[in-house]
Amino acid sequence: MKIGIASDHGGFEIKQVLKDRLEKQNYTIIDFGNFEINPGDDYPDFVVPLAKAVANNEVDRGIAVCGSGVGASIAANKIKGVRAGLVHDHYSAHQGVEDDNMNILCMGGRIVGVDKAIELATTFLEAEFSHAERHKRRLGKIEDCECQS
Fold first, then answer.
1. Exactly one of 66, 106, 145, 147 is catalytic; which is it?
2. Is 66 a catalytic residue?
3. What are 14-73's pLDDT values in tens digits?
4. Which end of the chain has a smaller Cβ tally under 10 Å, C or N?
5. Which CATH number fits domain 2-146: 3.30.420.40, 3.30.56.70, 3.40.50.700, 3.40.1400.10?
6. pTM surpassing 0.70?
């Protein structure tokens, strides 16, 4: 599975650890930046290219980490076809995929520690969409919203 990963300065350290750990789990990692700690950087500069890559099927799923995870989630969800979820607990990391076909996991680098981030990322990546009719119906309604101005 090919995974895109992105962070700003608030998630840089966790992103670096996740990259290393996920590569050891045989995931192919595409890093969308940032590539150094820069307190003046802006999360959309890294999260939006990641989200576009997910939407265009250039990567299978994405992980975005900013200070709280909120900004990354908001930015990613502006891209049509992206279903990004802000997740800080184990249940939501798998349920978001199983029920809502979440394709980008967003986390707060100042909220979760490294061990929790690894747990959440692994849970997210191992989860599969259920394809239950009720979930597909709900996702269809969300897709209809994406076409409206």
1. 66
2. yes
3. 999 999 999 999 999 999 999 999 999 999 999 999 999 999 999 999 999 999 999 999
4. C
5. 3.40.1400.10
6. yes
